[in-house]
Amino acid sequence: MPLLEIQNLIVEFQTASGPFRAVDGVSLSIDQREVLAIVGESGSGKSVSMLAVMGLLPWSAKVSADRMTFAGRNLLSLSVADRRRMVGKDMAMIFQEPMASLNPCFTVGFQIEEVLKVHLGLDRKARRARAIELLKLVGIPQPEDRLGHFPHQMSGGQCQRVMIAIALACNPKLLIADEPTTALDVTIQKQILDLLMRLQAEHGMALIMITHNMGVVAETADRVIVQYKGRKMEEADVLSLFENPKSDYTRALLSALPENATGDRLPTISDFMTDGGFRGAAQ
Question: Which CATH architecture group holds 32-62+77-240?
Answer without folding.
Answer: 3-Layer(aba) Sandwich (3.40)
